[in-house]
Amino acid sequence: MTMGLARIGVVGGSAFSFPDGIEEGREVQIDTPYGQPSSAMTIGAVSGQKIALIARHGKDHSILPHAINYRANLWALGHAGVDCIIALATVGGIGKECSPGSIVVPDQILDYTHSREHTFSPLEGKLFHIDFTEPYCGELRRIVVDCADRLNIEVRASGTYAATQGPRFESAAEISKLAGDGADIVGMTGMPEASLAREIGICYATIGLVVNYAAGIGGNRISIDAIRRAYSQGMQNVNRLLTEAIARLEDFECAVPPVISP
Ligand code: HPA
Q1: Which is the closest atom of ligand 1 to the Cα of 170?
Q2: ∠ CA 10-196-211 to the nearest 5 degrees?
Q3: Which CATH number characterizes residue 102's domain?
Q4: Distance of alpha carbon 161 from alpha carbon 158, whole angstroms
């Protein structure tokens, strides 16, 4: 039984908050069979829709990508009643049209992570396998891309997201291998978030903000200061896009059958 607190989930990346705030926002702490989520959930309204926001890295940005309790985050959102999630991610750019400042709505995933708690499927008992041919929800992605068109925000409407283990950035040779594998962008948190969402029947799409050229691509070393600058410039458009997409999700219907129910 879900709690019916919100229909739309937002998983915020580094330092995310809604610039105009969340109407009637309140904190709800949900304990899960998998432990504590990264943060209390903020429940409230944005663009007139009930949303639940989780800070992926914790409210004080202290949880490293490999240490995030993805299962607890996803389970908590599902238990709150969320049936679709827009995930925000900062990423490195590898492919064409993936320079710093650009926004990508990926349609495919390559998973290079390891040793993460990556499934709700029990080690013993009833095992399951999800279909992950299209790892992101096509309907949700279409809505985000339509909203970008409407707002005149340039987005790359597809692309392959490579999920790496972190917390370090990659070597130039690793990025060259990822490029050869077909990756357009690289980030550290996209998996197992996307597959866990599929396991519990939540539609999932990512808005990826490119904040740096991936290692060896731009000729320069990766600079945290430059990343911070690209982030604060790019987030204005990400926020506008997210707020518009949430408004458009009022009539969203796209049932993904859950394999387990939170
Ligand atoms: N690599 C991995 N994750 C990232 C990067 C990167 O270059 N930039 C932002 N997140």
Answers
A1: 1
A2: 50
A3: 3.40.50.1580
A4: 9
- Asked if residue 169 has its Cβ within 6 Å of ligand 1, the reply is yes
- Which residue, 85, 111, 105, 108, is CA-closest to 11? 85
C-beta 213 within 6 A of ligand 1 = no
CA-CA distance, 231 to 65, in Å (whole number)? 18
Q: Which amino acid would we find at residue 116?
A: R
pLDDT at 75: 96
> Domain range for residue 122?
8-247
222, amino acid identity: I
168 within a domain of the structure (yes/no):
yes
Q: Distance, CA 214 to ligand 1 centroid (Å)?
A: 7
Residue 80 · residue 3 · CB < 8 Å: yes
**pLDDT at res. 123:** 63
Domain count for the chain, please give it.
1
Q: How far apart are the first and last CA of the chain?
A: 7
Q: Are 168 and 221 in contact (CB under 8 A)?
A: no
| Rounded (10°) CA dihedral 23, 28, 32, 37 | 70
Q: Are 10 and 39 in contact (CB under 8 A)?
A: no
- The predicted pLDDT at position 15 comes to 73
Ranges in the chain, pLDDT < 70: 14, 123-125
What's the token pair of residue 170?
A: 């990659």
Residue 234 in domain: yes
Residue 249 carries which DSSP code?
G
- Output DSSP code: residue 32: B
The model's pTM: 0.96
Query: What is the Cα–Cα distance from 116 to 154, expressed in whole angstroms?
Result: 34
